[in-house]
Design brief:
The chain is mainly beta and 203 residues long. The chain is built from 1 helix and 13 strands. The chain has a single domain, classed as Jelly Rolls (Sandwich), CATH 2.60.120. The model has no long low-confidence stretch (mean pLDDT 86).
């Protein structure tokens, strides 16, 4: 690219850096806004089979963020209701070792007394820079959510001896209430309850 008269090298570099495909084309950086998004697609999928939550169990699914973005909703989908019970969904930071850590945003709660899509509006919205985050949930009941299964995972195999199944996330028994810093010693598993976000804008 020819340098225009009076153009500074800093401006050229800023333009170059801003172009996503300046060196390579990364399909994961191409993100649709204002549409529901799962943490790992296209490296995972949702099944129609039910995932029965265990009451007072904390679940976390990794959410890699490949470019800066702002999210305005958290969501899940109840398949079989549990009348009078509540599901909390929020966002955790990574602890630096691909394990869920401290709470970034408590998110909110949804009623499990009816089946269907459940949405939490984040106000204010949450801005995320590049990095790894975790979507987390905990419930005081045992509704069935839709099941999320990982094809390929940054967590590797869900046990140290089996490569056939990749870990979709981690769970650990806890106490229902506001999300805590994720406890140590969580159990890896190849399917977990479905959680997702809506991306409001790309920053």
């Amino acid at each position: 690219m020819l340098k225009l008269a009076g153009e500074l090298i800093e401006g050229q570099l800023a333009d170059h850096i801003a172009r996503l495909d300046a060196h390579t084309y990364n399909i994961f950086e191409q993100v649709a806004i204002n549409r529901p998004r799962l943490p790992f697609l296209p490296t995972g999928y949702i099944t129609d089979s039910a995932y029965a939550l265990t009451a007072n169990r904390l679940y976390a699914v990794p959410f890699p963020v490949v470019r800066a973005m702002t999210i305005d909703r958290l969501m899940s989908r109840v398949k079989t209701l549990d009348d009078g019970k509540t599901l909390r969904i929020g966002i955790l930071n990574d602890d630096g070792n691909i394990y869920p850590g401290t709470v970034l945003n408590q998110g909110g709660t949804v009623d499990c007394s009816g089946a269907g899509m459940k949405t939490i509006t984040l106000d204010p919205t949450v801005s995320l820079s590049k990095g790894i985050y975790w979507l987390a949930c905990i419930c005081d009941g045992t509704p069935d959510l839709y099941r999320y299964v990982a094809y390929v995972s940054i967590l590797g195999g869900y046990t140290t001896s089996i490569l056939r199944y990749q870990a979709a996330g981690i769970y650990k028994d806890d106490t229902y209430g506001e999300l805590p810093t994720f406890p140590e010693g969580g159990t890896y598993h190849y399917h977990l309850p479905m959680m997702g976000v809506r991306i409001a804008s790309l920053d």
